[in-house]
Amino acid sequence: MAVRPQQDRHRPGGEYDVTFDPGTVVTTVLLVVEYAVKIVAIGTVPANRRPSSGQAWLLLILFLPVVGLPLFLLIGSPYVHGRRHRLQGEANKAIEAYTVSEPLLPATVPSTASAGTLVRLNRQLTSMPCVLGNSEGLHGDYEDSIAAITAAIRAARRYVHLEIYILALDPTTAPLFEAMADAVDRGVKVRVLYDHLGSRKYPGYHAMNDRLTRDGVHWYRMMPIDLLRRRWRRPDLRNHRKLVVIDGIRAFMGSQNMIDSSYLSRRNLRISRHWVDLNIELSGEIVRSLDAVFATDWYAESGQRPDDIGLELETGSSDHDGRTAFQLVPSGPGFPTEPNLRLFASLIYLAQDNIQIVSPYFVPDESLMAAITTAAYRGVRVDLYVSEKADQFMVHHAQRSFYHALLESGVRIHCYPAPDVLHTKLVTVDDRIGLIGSSNMDMRSFALDYEIMLLALDPEVAADLNRIVERYRQRCFELDLETWKTRPRLERYLDNALRLTAAVQ
Fold this sequence. Notes:
Layout: E1 2-6, E2 15-19, H1 22-44, H2 51-63, H3 65-76, H4 83-98, H5 113-126, E3 130-139, H6 142-154, E4 159-164, H7 174-185, E5 189-195, H8 196-199, H9 205-214, E6 218-222, E7 238-239, E8 243-246, E9 250-254, H10 266-270, E10 275-276, E11 279-283, H11 286-302, H12 307-315, E12 324-331, H13 339-350, E13 354-358, E14 362-363, H14 366-377, E15 381-387, H15 393-400, H16 403-409, E16 412-416, E17 421-422, E18 426-429, E19 433-437, E20 441-442, H17 443-447, E21 449-457, H18 459-475, E22 477-478, H19 481-485, H20 489-503
Parallel strand pairs: 4-5, 5-6, 7-21, 10-17, 13-15, 14-20, 15-16
Antiparallel strand pairs: 1-2, 3-11, 3-12, 4-8, 8-9, 9-11, 12-21, 13-18, 16-22, 18-19, 19-21
C-alpha cells in the first residue's frame, strides 16, 4: 500500500489520495505467510521426534522454506497412519491372541534375567513369542546362498513364499526363477513379494514381471507407487525385509537381496565392487513366525488371506520344533515404538564382556550412540565392522562423523576394504546371544523401513556368527584415533555437514 500527497485543483491545500501497489501487497502477504509458517513450525515440527531430527527439519524450514516445507509435508511427518498401520495392529492382536498361553521362554530353555528381559521387551512391542528352532547353517558366500535357496525351492511340496527388498532377473538369479517355475508346474503355490521402488531401477524389471506372470507365480509389489492406478505411498517408506519360507518347515532370512552381487551396475563391474551378505537357514517352530510376517505383508498388498499359512500356523510340526530359543522381531512404520532400536540398545546395555557389531549403514540416534560408547567406557570390548567406503555418498560421510567419538570411547572400528560393500547386519553379545537380519543401525531402518531381526539365545549360534565376523576381521584394517584426527579438512567438513541429513526424517 502506498500513500502519497496529490494536489487537487478543486480543493484548496490538496488532500492525501490512497493508492494500491499490487507488487507491494503480494510481497507483504508472502512475508506474513512465511513468518506464520516459521512460527507454526517451531511449535509443531519437534513434536514426537528426536531432538536432532526436529532441529534438522527446523533449520531446513527456517532457512529454505520453499524447499523445506514441501519436503516436510511429503515425508517429514513422524506419524504413519493409514491402511497398513491398521492391518499391522490387527495382525499383532491376532498373534497375541494365538500365543497368549505360550510361556515367556520355551520350557527347555534355561531362564536367565537377561534372556527374560529381552524376550519380554520384544513380545511387548511386537507380540511375537520366543519359540524353538534350529539353525541349519549360515550362508556367507553370495552365490552359494542363492544356490541353497534355489535347492530348497526345488524340494518344495506345498508352497514357496519369497519376500525381498530387491528382486532382479539376471544370470545369477536365473536358476532361482527356473526353480519357482518348476515348482508351479508341480502344483506348488509360489507367492512373491518385492519392494516396488527397491527393485524397479534395475535392468530387466519389466521382463522379470512378465516372466513371473508367465510362469504362474503369484506376485505383488510392496509399497507400490502408481499414480495411474491411484496407488500412492510416502516415497520414503519401504519394505526392506528379506525372507524365504518353504512349506512352513524351512526358511531363510538375513541381509541378502536376490540380485547379482554387483547389483548390475556398470560402475560396480568396472571397479569390481560386490556386496558381501549373510543369510541364516532355519527349521522348526521359528519358521511359523516368518510365515506370520509374510502373511501380514501379503494381505497388505493383495487383500487375500493365504489359507495354507493359517493351517501351518495351527498344526505346526511339534516333532521338529528345535532346540534353540529364537524370537523374530519385526519393525517398521506399523510399530511406532521402534522395536529394533530398543532391542539393539538393550542388548548393548546387557553386555558384560564383548560386543560385535556389523552394519553397512551405521548412523545411530543419540540413545544407541550413548549405549555403545557407555559399554566401551565401562570396559566392554566393542568391535564395529563397517565398509571402508559406503555405496551411498551422504550415508558414507554421515557415518564417518561418528567415528571420532566412538574411537575416543574405546570402540574398535574395522573397515572392510573398498570397493566391496559389507552389507551383513548382525550383533553378538558376550559370545552367547546373536542377532541377524535386515535392519541397519540407522534412523531410516528404525522408523521408515519395514525390517526383521532374529534374536538367538544360544551360544552355538553366537559362535557361528562370530566365526563369520572373524573372516571379516581378517580382511579388514583398523582405524586409529590419532591417524583419524589428521584426515583432510574437506573430509571432516563433509562428514559433519552430511551428518545433518541423517536426522531429517
